[in-house]
Amino acid sequence: MKVWEVLVTAGAYLFGAGIFGIAGYMWWWGKRKFERSGQQREELVQLAEQRGWSYTPFTQGDGDAYFAGKTVNEPVYDYVAGEFRGRSFCCFEYRHRGTSQSERTQYAVLFAVNIPNSVPYTTVKRRRPLDTVEARLFRHGKVVELGIPSFDEAFRVISTDETVARHMLSDGLVRFLTSDPRAKAEPLRFQRNAAVTSYQGRLRPEHVEAKLDYLCDVLDRQGAMA
Questions:
Q1: Where do the TM regions start and end (predicted)?
Q2: Domains in the chain: boundaries
């Protein structure tokens, strides 16, 4: 066999091994992301008890006010509520499955910190190509640009009330979002009487205070709203 044939064959094997390796890693990561041990659940219960928060394994309707769309008696799990840094909050897990029986149950976690004033629906998150389409089709909102390149190039703001959105995004909050490394990974949503963030995965005890700290840091920079 010629040298070039050996190299091509070796390259093909390495390419195939790489594909299988990536697929295996993705499977492992998805499994890890959506699984949680009984010990972690017990640690979550213990955290709530230590902080004086309430814990409910399952409830319906208590999370309805915090979802982006209209829901009625949505079942939620591991519902934790209490006070953190002087503000009332709740967090919980919710689940959904596709139409196929073979599809794995998908888990997501929502954290909400309550604010005294009701505000219009406003999201602040990392820019994506289809954000403007989402704004027109799903929320009847408008893309809001602040005219600050460092912010507008990194984040997309969609709101049903541009004036209020500009007021919420004070100079202090804009500086915080453009400088804090957590901001791009933490989508923000303001609606009704809450500031909300969420992620795909399971509710784990080590995430609770970290996510609540982030939301409170955001609200601390909004002055009148907080």
A1: 6-28
A2: 1-33, 41-220
